[in-house]
Amino acid sequence: MKIALPDSHGRLTDYALTGVPVEGARLGADATRTVFSAAHVVADPFTANDPTGTASVDWDATMAFRRHLIDHGLGIAEAMDTAQRGMGLDWPGALELITRTRTEFPEALVFNGAGTDHLDPAYARSLDDVRRAYLHQIEAIQMIGGRIILMASRALAKVAQSPDDYVRIYGEVLSACDQPVILHWLGEMFDPALKGYWGSAEFDDCLETTLAIIGQNVAKVDGIKISLLDKDKEIRMRRLLPDGVRMYTGDDFNYPELIEGDEQGFSHALLGIFDPLAPAAAYAVDELGKGNTAAFRATLDPTVPLARRIFRAPTRFYKTGVVFMAWLNGFQDHFIMLGGAQSARPLPDLVEIFKMADTCGLLRDPDLAVARMNRLLAVYGV
Prior knowledge:
Elements: E1 2-6, E2 12-16, E3 35-38, H1 59-71, E4 75-78, H2 91-104, E5 110-114, H3 127-143, E6 147-150, H4 154-159, H5 163-174, E7 181-186, H6 203-216, E8 221-227, H7 231-238, E9 246-249, H8 255-260, E10 268-271, H9 278-289, H10 293-300, H11 304-310, H12 318-328, H13 347-359, H14 366-379
Parallel strand pairs: 3-4, 3-10, 4-5, 5-6, 6-7, 7-8, 8-9, 9-10
Antiparallel strand pairs: 1-2
Helix pairs in contact: 3-5, 5-6, 9-10, 11-13, 12-13, 13-14
């Protein structure tokens, strides 16, 4: 099967698809790694709302995609940045998403993002403002029986004056959590408003602060996800975590190595890239649990160039590539995103994602993917 694809100058070249759709699997409850996919949301393309206005979500398609992830045995990290949280999806929309997922999949492994995004950082005046905002969201999620991922706070980044302020706020907020939570260290490449989070621009200082928070609240911390796209920093922190506290890799550049681990430990996974990679991720981790490390790496290693393309700088626009692949694979009928974010990546990027997805066996129906790619190219004047 062939398709004529343009280069950055519009010149067309025939591309022959060669990929074989990856073999699927379902992870069991006893899987060797805990694997979460941070899941995207499907926009309603027929809304009359402005892209800059209130989000309109296609709830049926959004829930159907979560069913796809659960069918592969993956956990769901709900209402996170992959769902355009704070970048198109506001707190009321996030709470509705969390509530719907909890209602439809009550037995599934789901943790939910709790942050302060209903508090505009411009109106945050004190640490107490931040604390109240965190507690508001935590209470709402816990009222429906939801587990918590404690998201980084733009408001806290604005008002905090020192690492001690982070230690204080996190201690107070964690004390209100009724079950152990996953902390989230989100780097500024994902959200520039979080520059200097934990009270310093230096990794060593930030590491000291986060370890202090965890050490003072071990009973309240299931684990920590770090999204810094730096495997050495993750491994260093992983080796310093207290017993029983998990490292969840958020490194969309180096996840195979980090999940496999070494003689001193390994990372579990909480990844945006596992939204489009769900079948490959489930199969690979299932093989890892059988002791077949070669099959694990043979499945996931070829996906790394694709992940690096999707998450290239400016990294915060990675959601465009994630949703593009969901459209190519038939999980939604359109390539429209909250906030008009489908326009955040140029056509040459989408062309490369298409080719790389084919090479990795991640186009589950190549005929459908080619048809949809041709429709997109027509919009661009090809």
